[in-house]
Amino acid sequence: MDRLMNKHVPKVGLVSLGCPKALVDSERIITQLRAEGYVMSPGYEDADVVLVNTCGFLDSAKAESLAAIGEAMAENGRVIVTGCMGVEADTIMKAHPGVLAVTGPHQYEAVVGAVHKALPPVHDPKMDLVPPQGLHLTPKHYAYLKISEGCNNRCSFCIIPSIRGDLVSRPVASVLYEAERLVKAGVKELLVISQDTSAYGVDIKYATSKFHGREVRAKFYDMAKELGELGAWVRMHYVYPYPHVDEVIPLMAEGKILPYLDIPFQHAAPNVLKAMKRPANQEKVLDRLAAWRAICPDIAIRSTFIVGFPGETDADFEYLLQWMKEARIERAGCFKYEPVSGAKANELGLPQVPDEVKQERWERCMEAQQQISAEIFQSKVGREIDVLVDEIDEENEEAIARSPWDAPEIDGNVFLPGETDLKPGDKVRVRIVEAEEYDLVGERI
Ligand code: SF4
């Protein structure tokens, strides 16, 4: 405390935009900065410098990133930019010439170096500012676990590989020790993320590494099995339906990892998938889903779909709708195709789908999925399940929790009326008494 009273403590403000992967980058940066004696400032006024972690995936995200940089410049004036949009340093400097430095995605050292330059650290090694599990921007009871960077796929609508490069997997022991530290620190749910979780370890030839003296392979199944032993909920995001994913389904049936797979299908019509250059583009996906459900009937699949991709015909769209009706996946978001500058899809020479057609398809896609989700979630009424409490809403006198079928931020909730004595991170057994459009209502058993 003496140090905090006697010296000016360098304060860094942070604006974190984009996806969970960007959030993990922000967490790593602040963990490093806190270890070096910086403190994080919640507002612009107090900060000596503001870091803006940007997203550059879609043009709309770039516009949002530029606006956030503009706001930080106007409110504070000393701004460092990092993240996916950092690869477009020229665009940033043209729009905001006063920016102190621009670094790209997962360039932790470069961004920390830029902070040192703008604001030298006041390091006191006697002060242990950082807990061993690092600092997290998510509520304490769940944490994102990033297992790799980059992607070996080349989906034609996506510029992530050109921003983040090819797949680089972390050694499995490093992933598992991080997961273990998080669980010891009170984390109840681990959300496994990457660009392509099912491809984990391909780049390092599934190299083994030692976890508590045991050799573990850097492979999707082996990692999932080990994570399943840690005692927390384990949720898998960004998985593609490759044949080897089948091996993981029994772990879900045994309750080792959550019966949940986030698979961004994006479309179903073969020629659209081909133009999109999607990985695991196989005709047998419906059979695969049926086989998974036979092993683990409780599995929830969450996905995203893009409508209005260049060249998508009425027949392609009808194919998608029919596929959705057959696949009956639990949760899905639907997006209208947006051409990203630099994406290969723009060079395919395929006709653009007019905006009004995109809009109409989007509405039909959303409507079809809403109906499917509503029917599935209606069938959960009467079930007894474990839920994880996220927050207590004192005003409405209820606890807001999630089921194994709901990921934070993107899926629904389980509301528990009257349960204000619970706290975030509590796991309780409930009976589902009602299903709403996206959410469930439960009562404690
Ligand atoms: S899998 Fe496709 S959409 Fe996802 S990051 Fe890789 S290239 Fe982009």
Counted by DSSP, the helix tally is 13
CATH superfamily of the largest domain: tm_1862 like domain
The coarse silhouette is globular
Q: Profile the largest sheet.
A: 5 strands, parallel
Structural class estimated from helices and strands: alpha/beta
Biggest sheet strand line-up? 2-1-3-4-5
CATH topology of the largest domain: pyruvate-formate lyase- activating enzyme
Beta-strand content: 15-25%
The whole-number mean of residue pLDDT values reads: 89
Which architecture name of the largest domain does CATH use? Alpha-Beta Horseshoe
Function: Catalyzes the methylthiolation of an aspartic acid residue of ribosomal protein uS12.
Keywords: 4Fe-4S, Cytoplasm, Iron, Iron-sulfur, Metal-binding, Ribonucleoprotein, Ribosomal protein, S-adenosyl-L-methionine, Transferase
Pfam family, one: Radical_SAM
Domain MTTase N-terminal: 10-120
Compose a concise summary of this entry.
By secondary structure, the chain is of the alpha/beta class. The protein has helices spanning 2-6, 20-35, 59-75, 89-95, 108-118, 160-164, 172-184, 220-227, 249-253, 270-276, 285-295, 314-327, 355-378, and strands at residues 11-16, 39-41, 49-54, 79-83, 101-102, 142-146, 148-149, 168-169, 189-193, 208-211, 214-217, 233-236, 260-262, 300-307, 331-336, 384-393, 398-402, 414-417, 427-435, 440-444. It has 3 domains: 2-118, Rossmann fold (3-Layer(aba) Sandwich); 142-378, pyruvate-formate lyase- activating enzyme (Alpha-Beta Horseshoe); 384-444, OB fold (Dihydrolipoamide Acetyltransferase, E2P) (Beta Barrel).
